[in-house]
Design goal:
The protein is of the alpha/beta class and 567 residues long. Among the domains are: 142 residues, Resolvase, N-terminal catalytic domain (Rossmann fold, 3-Layer(aba) Sandwich); 134 residues, Hect, E3 ligase catalytic domain fold (Alpha-Beta Complex); 96 residues, no CATH class. It contains 15 helices and 24 strands. Strands 3-1-5-6-7 form a five-stranded mixed β-sheet, sandwiched between helices. Helix 7 packs across helix 9. It starts with 12 loop residues before the first strand and ends in a 7-residue tail after the last strand.
Length: 567
């Protein structure tokens, strides 16, 4: 706003209000902000106003009255030193019939403010204009019509595979084709680093803290520095202060695999610009549209990991890379991480559902971390040796397991979905029967109301579960973690000397821990390792497992027994 320091009186002080919005389709020079300023200033001076105050909203829809320049102008008008308001036409004040009507019929007369709308031929000093309400109504209808046409256009474009939003952090528009995204090397390096740190076991808060410490520009400030226009509101404070929600958002974006996701959000009304998250089934996804920043296998693995509730710390905050991967082979509950009270160097896992801890599982399923680490490292080494020495046989084995694992998982989910759907239909029948009993007087109103609430609540829970399982089945149908990807990941760790959290995340889905038992007079411990994509793999006896033993807390030596020797 430009304001004179020597305002003599309100009779010579006027406000001009230019506004431009994409909703208005005003691309011509005559409708630009500069042109509106020039026109309104000229008319105001011709009418005797020498002190001109300018309030501007550029790129803000007239449907909303929550506009920075407009609100500032109203605040100044309320102070009483401005005598007139000049606009190019009434639609510049807004395209909300009720709100603009209150402004022109109530606010301006109450504050004795002259309104001049140049294109409409309106000047309240020359008398009331009966067409103003009609003009305001048509202005709102115009906004509604434009919104409807834009929605239809977006629907057509979105279903045709055109991106409906700007490219995410890590991509930029192709200068030769704005409908295509290309990788922004500088930002993409940060995206890759965020995914790498996640695979290494870092949480979103740790990653955010590391980026903040190194003064990496946040996405909004990065775009600002590069001169890229974005609809985001600028963040307050330091441009280097990363938040865990920003990191989490990057980790969940499917676009980094090369896919395009349209209709992720929607608005309820053309008057309400707030975006609401869309249900997955209402989104449209086009795969392999642009160059990926992250391998699909890595992205999917991280989504699986982030979808689990993982107890990653002991009570004193200590972490372990196996947390969340270990489950009880008997009750399927997670194993929890602990350390020996007398000797903190001894760390172990046991079943969280053990009845000695008020659970129901019959055994502790105790396993030492040092023993577990050595076993898993040797099993991965044995797997990589098998892959390198018997490449064709390994490929056939993995592909067979991959297909079998997918089919078994899909079959289990479909059975569960069938049972839930059957129960939902049964509840409908029960409700109908109960309604008839209530009508015929066999069930009183109080009991009917109580049972109705019970059945309704159960059906709500069923509907949510059915929706979740259906989405999971759809995901399995399109899942791209193929056998080839698993094989390439295995080869990456051919010369691994140390077990890392990233290695675990990329190769292993979960580890089932069996209770130690006696076999031929020896105490043995069995583990069922389920690898990503392929499930359980029994490696031939031609590649034997080195003997690994550990002395347990009871002074008993326990030896690991590979799964193919347990048949």
């Amino acid at each position: 706003m430009r304001q004179s320091n020597n305002i003599k009186n309100r009779d010579t002080t006027a406000a001009i209000y230019p506004r431009l919005s994409r909703d208005d389709g005003m691309d011509g020079d005559s409708n630009s902000i500069a042109s509106q300023k020039k026109l309104l200033t000229k008319i105001a001076k011709e009418k005797g106003y020498t002190n001109i105050l300018t309030f501007v909203d550029d790129g803000v829809s007239g449907v909303t009255m929550n506009r920075p320049g407009f609100k500032e102008m109203i605040t100044e008008l309320e102070k009483g030193y401005i005598g007139a308001v000049f606009v190019k036409d009434l639609s510049r004040l807004g395209r909300n019939y009720i709100e603009v009507g209150k402004l022109t019929e109530e606010f301006f007369p109450e504050h004795d403010i002259r309104l001049v709308s140049v294109a409409d031929g309106v000047d309240t000093d020359e008398g009331e204009n009966d067409l103003n309400p009609i003009r305001n109504l048509f202005n709102e209808w115009y906004a509604r019509d434009i919104s409807k046409k834009r929605r239809i256009g977006n629907r057509v474009k979105g279903n045709a595979g055109e991106p409906l939003g700007p490219p995410p952090y890590g991509y930029t528009k192709d200068p030769d084709n704005p409908k295509r995204w290309i990788i922004d090397p500088e930002a993409a390096a940060i995206v890759r680093r965020i995914f790498d740190m996640t695979l290494d076991g870092k949480g979103t808060e740790q990653i955010a803290a590391a980026l903040t410490k190194e003064k990496v520009l946040m996405p909004t400030f990065y775009w600002l520095e590069k001169g890229v226009k974005r609809p985001n509101k600028p963040h307050e404070g330091t441009p280097y202060h990363w938040k865990n929600v920003t990191v989490a958002s990057i980790l969940t974006r499917r676009e980094y695999c090369g896919d395009l996701v349209n209709f992720k959000t929607y608005s309820k009304s053309y008057k309400n610009k707030k975006r609401i998250g869309n249900a997955p089934e209402n989104m449209v996804i086009f795969e392999n549209v642009h160059e990926p920043i992250i391998d699909r296998a890595v992205w999917e693995r991280i989504q699986e990991k982030r979808g689990k509730v993982r107890k990653r710390k002991t009570n004193n905050g200590e972490k372990n890379m196996f947390s969340g991967l270990l489950v009880c082979a008997d009750c399927n509950n997670n194993l929890h991480y602990h350390f020996n009270q007398k000797n903190h160097d001894i760390t172990y896992f046991n079943c969280s559902n053990y009845k000695g801890n008020r659970g129901t599982c019959e055994s502790t399923h105790y396993i030492r971390v040092d023993f577990l680490t050595e076993v898993i490292l040797q099993e991965i080494r044995r797997l990589t040796r098998y892959a390198s020495r018997h490449e064709n046989e390994f490929s056939r084995l993995v592909m067979g397991h991959s297909k079998q694992s997918a089919e078994l998982g899909r079959e289990r989910k479909q059975k569960e979905l069938y049972a839930l759907t059957a129960r939902d239909r049964e509840l409908d029948k029960l409700f109908n029967r109960m309604y008839e009993d209530n009508i015929n007087g066999r069930i009183d109103d109080e009991r009917f109301a109580r049972m109705s609430t019970q059945y309704t609540d159960e059906q709500k829970e069923l509907a949510e579960t059915i929706k979740a399982i259906s989405a999971e089945l759809d995901k399995q149908e399109t899942k791209a973690m193929t056998a080839d990807m698993f094989i390439s990941t295995v080869r990456k760790y051919t010369r691994a000397k140390k077990l890392t959290e990233r290695m675990l995340n990329e190769l292993i889905e979960r580890i089932e821990v069996h209770q130690s038992e006696k076999v031929d007079g020896l105490h043995v411990q069995r583990l069922t390792i389920r690898y990503n994509c392929v499930g359980e793999i029994a490696i031939p006896d031609a590649l034997p497992m080195p003997e690994i033993s550990v002395n347990t807390r009871k002074g008993v030596t326990v030896t690991y027994l590979p799964i193919q020797q347990t048949a």
